[in-house]
Amino acid sequence: DYWGEGGDVTDITFRVIDDPVARRQALESGDIDGYDLVAPADTQALSDAGFNVVARDPFTILYLGLNQQQEELKDVKVRQAIAHAIDKEALIGQTLPEGTEPATQFIPKSVNGFSEDVTKYEYDPEKAKQLLAEAGYADGFTIDFNYPTGVSRPYMPTPEQVFSNLSNQLS
Known about the structure:
This protein is mainly α. The chain is built from six helices and no strands.
């Protein structure tokens, strides 16, 4: 009972395609007409291929939770070293949606409760190594990561890539 002139579209089917590579392939093969959560690495290639890639402001909250029950993570210097060892700009550029901003705290500027008055940990691998040495871990240690697999989420379109990126940085 739409009051205006009818459109050409009569049916819309929503399919869940968890894998970002499979989503892109489905679009390129013509199996689907569009999808959300375009991986950052695919944006330019899809645009170059003639696809209409529409960016939307991301609401990306990606955080690394540290379990302080693990012996090494009880030391604040180790936690600070981890914060200094992560190149947030590289992580964003390689794995998160365009427009994502680096975080200084758990919540982004757009959420009530954000504060400019927090300690900031700039990317500084040498400072990270110094802090680890001061904490007694100059030779490093092994940490287990837990992250979602086989799924894609708006705030983390490629969890495996995020893990790989963080793992390489912390190595």
